[in-house]
Amino acid sequence: TLTPPTVEGVVINEIGVTDLSASNNGTYAVGDIVELTATFSSDVSVAGTPSIGLLVGANPVQATYASGSGTTTLKFRYEIQAGDLDEDGIEIPSSFITLAAGDAISGTESNADAALAFTTPDTANIAVDGVAPTVAAVVGPDAGTYNTSQTLSVDVMFDENVTVTGEPTIPLSINGQNVLATYDAGASANDTITFTTANLTSDLSSTGTAGQVTIGQINLNGGSIADDNDNEATLTLTPPTVEGVVINEIGVTSITASSNGTYAV
User: Fold this and answer.
1) pLDDT tens digits along 42-99
2) CA pair distance 24, 36, nearest whole angstrom
3) What's the whole-number average pLDDT of the chain?
4) Three-state SS across 231-264?
5) Phi, psi of 185 (to 5 degrees)
């Protein structure tokens, strides 16, 4: 003999989410799309822009409805913004699709409201890097005397490793004359890229007196400087002005000594 309870609030055969899947694992950069796919038990129609909350680092954002009305599959998307960063994987803090005022998800045929709860997928391996590399320091050429067979170098150091494509340049003003320093792949490594001038010309310091090197801004010339996740670097420089550079002054190019041996009186 049973004395069963009466259970309230049970809805049978209501249209609802049967699965929620997320984008492929990997690291997403600025402009990349993190996509969530909600699969329903039958075709649904969408009004407005329902959303699914995400936590990117400590920043709450919304993956908003993008497509799928009239089918069983709805797509929700979030585009990575500059400054977004989450190295240990995004989170989905709520297990419900959110409806704002005017939003609705309902059965296409029945017009009944759909149940919006879902089982949260594993997003621990969906990382985000929307932080662009920035210039940490600029080192100009050393003060000193240079002849026409030599070059001047400028080192630009970023706050993370960067990859360079093409032939970016930096304009230099040397004692009032203009010359280009070109990206030197052979001298560059990891977070530092080096620009060098071609052979110096005879008109850069006709007086042979110590002068000034002024370093300009980087020109990409159709190339790029970006981190490993294709975030384009911020290239604004605050370069030093280098004093005491003498170019094309006549001087000693080498000195040699007598042959090795022991010399007497």
Assistant:
1) 999 999 999 999 999 999 999 999 999 999 999 999 999 999 999 999 999 999 999 9
2) 10
3) 89
4) CECECCCCCCEEEEEEECCCCCCCCCCCCCCCCC
5) -60, -35
